[in-house]
Amino acid sequence: MPFASVVLDIPTRAIEGSFDYLIPQQLEDSCQVGCTVLVRFSHRSAVGYVAQVKDEPSEDVAASKLLPVEQVLAPSAFDRVGARVALWMAREYACPACDAIRLFLAPGQNVKVHRAAEGAPWELVCDRAGAVDDRWVSLTQKAQDFVPAKNATRQRELMAALAAGPMRMAELRATMGGVSAAVTALQKRGVVEVTQRRRVRGSEGTTLSSAQAPRPQHLTQGQVRALAAIDQARTAGKGDVVLVDGVTGSGKTEVYLDAIEHALDQGRGAIVLVPEISLTAQTVGRFRSRFGDRVAVLHSRLSVGERFDQWDLVRQGKARVVVGARSALFAPLADPGLIIIDEEHEGSYKQDQSPRYHAREVAAQMARERGCALVLGSATPSLESLQRCRAGSWRGASWTRVSMPERPGGSALPDIQVVNMAEQFHGGNRSIFSAPLAEALQEVAQKRQKAVLMLNRRGFASFLMCRDCGCVPECPHCSTALTYHERTHTLECHTCGRSWPQRAYPDPSTRCPNCGSRYMAAFGVGTQRVEDELRALLPDDVDIVRMDADTTKGKGDHQRLLERFDTSACAVLVGTQMIAKGLDFPEVTLVGVVNADTTLKLPDFRAAERTYDLLEQVAGRAGRGDTPGRVIVQTYWANHPAIQAVAQHDRALFEDAELAERQEANYPPFSRLANVVVWGKNAASVRSTCDAMAHQLRERVGERPGWEILGPADCVKARVKDRTRRHVLVKAPPTADLGPLLSECAAAIGQRMGMNIALDIDAYDMM
Ligand code: ADP
Ligand code: ZN
Ligand code: ZN
Q: pTM here?
């Protein structure tokens, strides 16, 4: 008799792992790996997922004591490999196994056991999105010699309409009044027939011409190398990784398309992950134009029904190419030859709620389990990926970097000018715009061209900066910028919790710790002020379009503002980071970065990396058309490696300096880092819970080399929605098994009333 190993959908750390159940004879066919089932667990009904079907129960249980699976509630959504990946995730990211398994379920499935109140009976709630059948009406053979009665106008109209081909019942009803009766009457006479046909939602295409993917005549040398490396990794079938390190516009997408074609030729499929924000009609269209109906698309802007249909196309094996956002990784594709992650450096590949997984890491594990290749692509690869390529291997798979330094056709990269704002300040310029930027803007106005001005969002932290020398005080222990707290006149480190007294300009006692200047001031300007200064600087006929959180609150605002900018003859688009990505306006001749420094000094060890990525992206916005573009970057840290690297088109300048700093301070990629965040309404309980976590961690870690426990400290976002937030940071060696250790600590302190604990392993959000 077969047995099922079932993961219960009870998300508590107290019930971990899977439990064995008997599969009764009548369920032997339907109860398979990946099914949702109903079982008994400690005297109540529970929903669970079948992770394994086997002939023998686990050694430590007696077969005669096992309870049967009671019902199969939903058909299989994943296979044995999917189940193994889910269990790996639960361990790696210290989350309940059912949280990881839910990622693999059909979109819209919500099956659970629920009771209205304590003591009320448990009830099964089954809510599943399903297939939708349309009713189609068509003429039969008999229609040829059938003539409706004289007064049956409706029947005549209906037959005339159907003469052109079958039509949907819904469509007929919308266009002809009283058509239902006519259909019924003709159906009785055998003149028309009504059939059910499966509808596939979410497959609508686009007519945009930019959404085509014409095959280029020749691949560039870089593309040929990348393709060869990918083919080799796919054939090796061991989860080998190829990092396609190609400048913007170097033809990475073309490489993906060809590599997928090769995989399809071998009878295998492909999963392509793209950041949600770049999953536009253009991107999807390029894949559809090459692979047609074999493409399924999955992202969060689709309705549940659309997502279900696309997902089901994959499960049925009809779609072999899945293009989607982060969660498309879990689509039920039977035999992928490739998993591709475009823009692999993007922070959005890390999920910010449980399970807090990183798509790159899960994809790497999945590629090993499925015996396929993992392809990572970016113009600014993450330091983690670059480091693994340098080492040549990671967790048993090989990592290879292929660089594509040129654009096909050799179109030039824009000219970049860095302006030192401290010099502007000494020269007496108190404006937001340096002299070169002001002149360039005036030139754009005069030539009736277009410009984009990016303002780095201030973020949540405010910090102090010396306007004379550009110094921003840092914590000597953590090498992160200190945030300034106006109320207490203190500089605080949100990594280790230390603080120092400091007053800001115009207080007469203020002093720069570096040069002694008294212009030690809180830093940051808003988009509104940039807009005001622009209006004062430029003639009235220049259209100034401001795009930030305030002006894009409503649905469609974003699109409307971009269209206005597009149709204006002469305009300046002013915005926050949201304008850096994906915008493609050939007429933009000038890109200005008002303050490159804000993101540089966020209290986060990835601040410099993010700034570099952002500047490289925004610089790519200039000169896409025939007119050469220019980029002006305003900064107080003109010699900062991140800024120098962008200015000189030389990433090594940034990488070398940044890696040295990361190594010195023991940050990733030289360590693993976890952020344990505790939040709740009661500040005292938050404090004691966080202390208890830190204590548990210190107990277990002891003097192990390479481990460090930092804090507890207030989070940078110390209060969110009336909840107090504190955190503890854990640094561990790169090979450390962080998940089980953090799980143990959380289990040891137990559930505490009103307290929330997030175990964020390989954290990206440090705020
Ligand atoms: P990336 O994904 O690296 O930004 P794309 O794949 O979008 O680059 O390519 C940029 C442009 O170059 C596209 O218009 C694409 O059609 C074109 N392109 C790509 N490869 C070639 C090639 N080998 N020859 C000519 N044009 C190419
Ligand atoms: Zn100074
Ligand atoms: Zn510190």
A: 0.85
